[in-house]
Amino acid sequence: MLDEVYYYLAPDGRLPQWNDRVPEVTGYTHGETEEMSATEFFGPEDRDEVASAVATAVTEKRQVTVEGAVFAVELPKAD
Fold it and tell me: What is the distance between the alpha carbons of residues 21 and 46, in angstroms, rounded to a whole number?
C-alpha cells in the first residue's frame, strides 16, 4: 500500500480512481469523492491555480485499434 495520497485525474477534473489514503487523509467518503472535482480538495484561495494546473495536466485523445475502432484515452500533457 502506498503511504502517499494517489489519485487518477481525468481531463474534466474528476477523480475516477484513488488509493485508500485519499479518504483516510481527506475524511471524504468514497461516494463523496466520486462526486467531487480536484479543485474541491483545496482551499478557496488555491482553487483557481489548481483548476489551471488540471487544465494543463491531462489531455484526451482518440486511439485507434487494428480493426479501426476508435476509443478515448487520457494522456498526461508534456511540458
Answer: 22
The CATH fold assigned to 7-76 is Beta-Lactamase (3.30.450)
Identify which of 25, 24, 51 has the alpha carbon closest to the alpha carbon of residue 39: 51
Claim: this prediction has a pTM higher than 0.90: no
Question: Domain segments of the chain: what residues?
Answer: 7-76
pLDDT by residue for the chain (79 residues), tens only, comes to 557 888 888 878 888 899 999 999 999 999 999 999 989 999 999 999 988 888 887 788 899 999 999 988 877 776 6
Those residues whose C-beta lies under 8 Å from the C-beta of residue 30, and which sit 6 or more positions away, are 23
32, 46, 37, 50: which is closest to 10 by C-alpha?
37
In total, the chain counts a number of residues equal to 79
